[in-house]
Amino acid sequence: MLPASTDVLVIGGGNAGMCAAIAAREAGADVVLLEHANKSMRGGNSRHTRDHRVMHDEPTATMVESYSEEEFWQDLLRVTGGNTNEHLARMMIRKSRELLDWLSARGVRYQQALSGTLSLTRTNAFYLGGGKAVLNAEYLTAERLGVEIFYDSQVTAIDITDGHATSATVVNRGFTYTINARAIVVASGGFQANEQWMKEVWGDAADNFCIRGTPYNRGVVLKDLLSKGADPVGDPSQCHAVAVDARGPRYDGGIVTRLDCVCFSIVVNNLGRRFYDEGEDFWPKRYAIWGRLLAQQPDQIGYAILDSKVLHHFMPSVFPSISADSIEELARKIGIDEQALAHTVSEYNHAVVDGSFDKAVLDNCSTRSLDPPKSHWALKLDTPPYFAYPMKPGITFTYLGLKVNDEARVLFGDGSPSDNVFATGEVMAGNILGQGYCAGTGMTLGSVFGRIAGEHAACCRN
Ligand SMILES: Cc1cc2nc3c(=O)[nH]c(=O)nc-3n(C[C@H](O)[C@H](O)[C@H](O)COP(=O)(O)OP(=O)(O)OC[C@H]3O[C@@H](n4cnc5c(N)ncnc54)[C@H](O)[C@@H]3O)c2cc1C
Predict the structure, then answer these.
(1) One-character DSSP codes across 4-54
(2) Atom 53 (ligand 1): residue with closest C-alpha?
(3) Which domains does the chain show, CATH number per domain?
(4) What is the per-residue pLDDT across 364-405, written as a single tens digit (0 to 9) for each?
(5) How far is the CA of 303 from the centre of ligand 1 (A)?
């Protein structure tokens, strides 16, 4: 049986919701947390994560050197093209400094920074055991504090008048309940797993998307609140989308299906044509544009084509590469017109300018008079066997969300802050991420705004 009332009702049991629930309970409120998934699937997208981005003035136990507010802000400014709320973003950055201690005190453990293709040793703290371990620690802490957690509980609507909420409607194992609450924290993620909504935005192309995380983030509460006067933020077509192996599952493929080979490949569509500069910049700065690029191709599919010289320069996919001794044979194996692919490769090979290959810098291996160019790491495709990875858009999370203020209060009717509805995590990410992405920002903003939302929500009980 679900309770009839509580002080603070948290909707969604990912990292953002758990941080809010813990903070509200520590501030003295009775807290109920509702999670749509069952216990084994709890934790939303957060369980797939590896790290978060943290400002720090000096080396920490798990991060090297320093990462200042200004540098974090400039990184965010660059990737979003200015499409961000500076006040909220800077507040998030400053408060990220407290996260290592705050989360560590609540059971989260960190490991030495990994050096890999994302080279984030200075800017990001890596979780020991990944996101799943983070969630297990947060659930354990919440339970010990007395947060009441209910699984298989989908919130379908919030009863709200003029921005003041009184209760939520919940479906639990086929039964419908109403829970009265003095405050509500919405932490129910984006809407990327809502196939119908995605089709409204992307058309039939959405049928060919993989959703990298949970199938439960369907935007039900987001849509409900927007229909009841909450101010929207962000564009429905903006999202974090990467290239994933096209052989991956429709949902929950997680981190292992991501393909990190683009810089060292040429990428063609199913007509055998290149469509973007694969070597534009370092992979961490560009990986989040490739999902959108693939979404714009026929049948939303692309193929990374490599030769044996570069095979060991990137983290391999969980699926084996498709290999062949000639480009024509490779084309046959992946179902592309042989002559079209051979022509593209030959045109590319002729355009490659000799340089000295160095994957650690923006090297001088590039193409001349080729459209689109390959600006760095351009080596001839001339050393068999040749390899291909099929790629699809992998949607991580959508950016359309609820507009909030610096107390994480949801704004209603052109800017009035609600007295008792708060939001954190993906569902308000668009306040900071109008477009683009800096690796590790998702967990940072969920934790920072989760704490803030929980603390302020707890005050509503008085
Ligand atoms: C494969 C992958 C890797 C990632 N790696 C990183 C990383 O390393 N670092 C990083 O910062 N970010 C990463 N991200 C992004 C990150 O996961 C998200 O930004 C972050 O987890 C968002 O947290 P959240 O709590 O808002 O959402 P989630 O963790 O998705 O939690 C939302 C929860 O709400 C529940 N829910 C949804 N609707 C309802 C409803 N109506 N009623 C009740 N419950 C509901 C869902 O079941 C879910 O548990 C990654 C994402 C993916 C998919």
Answers:
(1) SEEEEEEE--SHHHHHHHHHHHHTT--EEEE-SS-GGGTTGGGGG--EEE-
(2) 213
(3) 5-235+399-459 (3.50.50.60), 241-394 (3.90.700.10)
(4) 999 999 999 999 999 999 999 999 999 999 999 999 999 999
(5) 28
